[in-house]
Amino acid sequence: MRLLIIGNGITGVTAALTVRRLRPEAQITLVSEESEHHYSRTALMYVYMGHMRYQNIKPYEDWFWRENRLTLVHATATHLDAARQHVTLHDGQQLGYDKLLLATGSVSRAADWPGQHLRGVQGLYGLPDLARMEQSTRGIEHGVVVGGGLIGVELAEMLHSRGIGATVLVRDAHYWGSVLPPAEARLVDQQFEENHVAVRYQTELAEILGDAAGQVRAVRTTAGDEIACQWVGLATGVTPNLTLANTSAVETDRGILVDELLQTSVPLVYAAGDCAQHRQPAHGEVPIEQLWYTGRMQGETVAHTICGTPTPYRRGVWFNSAKFFNLEYQTYGRVPARPEAGIDTFYWEHASGRQGLRINFRSAPGFAVTGFNALGLRLRQAVCETWITAQTPIQEVMSHLGAANFDPEFYRQHEADMVAQFNRQFPQHATVLRHRKGLFFR
Ligand SMILES: Cc1cc2nc3c(=O)[nH]c(=O)nc-3n(C[C@H](O)[C@H](O)[C@H](O)COP(=O)(O)OP(=O)(O)OC[C@H]3O[C@@H](n4cnc5c(N)ncnc54)[C@H](O)[C@@H]3O)c2cc1C
Q: Domain FAD/NAD(P)-binding spans what residues (predicted)?
């Protein structure tokens, strides 16, 4: 089998490695326009901040690919001819395939603001962006970041690490308003304050202003303010990269449309990861998943189907993690930003404002837990997922909270407080702590 994969991100590489394991004889070729070798996109910020060098964010040594008979092609795939089963590269070379996986990822989304093409205005998605940011933030005093999501806070932290002042413009009334409940967002705010990053809520970008040389000099906000800056980071989300798919008959919408086997509308062509849009997402799931771990799962799943074992993609319990300056964040299951009908929510916060724990559970008898948000403390993924999948009652979860924690010492100190607060808030579910021997270290 000749397998051609476009994109060497986590999705493409996971698919390649899985196929190599399942089909030792397969001919596997990975094409990428961005880099010769796979690297961890999520670690880009650490290169800018000087914590890591580029070679440190490549999970595999350069010899690994040859050793595993994975052919790497550093080129742009410009055209897909699905009828003739080949892809054309920018230099005219044609690569034939028996099966093709489109794992083309995303591109930064831009909203067509006046001035967005000025020098010093950019998004952060890949290595060319990192190089551009490296160059255009050298020696500057102030940068403005547009967007209150994960990349927005990363950009602010990157600027801060080099002593560059930062202002973040956030459309919502609080940070990451579409995802975080206000209490959790306040903890993130504290991080912004401690790191002297100015955040303007309910404020959008109106216009980017340039000087005579075409270099950004300020932004104007929808509130009418002008903020002087020498660099603007656009962090208003990403959108599936459809450039190659759109040269073919492969059906697209916002992403490349796929069924549960991650098959596109064209035979022998699959799509997975950030670029794929699920035709029928399961209840409560989003059609386009733009996460590292879902890319890995989709890459692994599609590899089985490609190798002849049709395997539907099942994401399982939702999970995500991030870091806002010094504040770690994890989420499991469903924890929407706003209260949901039929769901009760328990929120505990440490007096320091540096740790928060939210647990959602059904209001109806059974009182099954449905989701967890943890900030400043680390939960054990396997325990939380088991509790959610098994529809464990909230009382049982509260009485065994320590089982989910990575830091038993912290829990020993605060578990009693959490449970006492829970009992005050939900006297009908009042519970007692149980410290079963060994539970903390499971
Ligand atoms: C700065 C940043 C931080 C992030 N942090 C997190 C995080 O903390 N946690 C998390 O879960 N997710 C995070 N993400 C999202 C996560 O990185 C992505 O969901 C994931 O990398 C997507 O993997 P992928 O393999 O589907 O696509 P990609 O990693 O985008 O790989 C696709 C590759 O295909 C190449 N390509 C596209 N078209 C062509 C073509 N025509 N020819 C040749 N090559 C082509 C692209 O250049 C790219 O290299 C972050 C993203 C960014 C940008």
A: 2-286
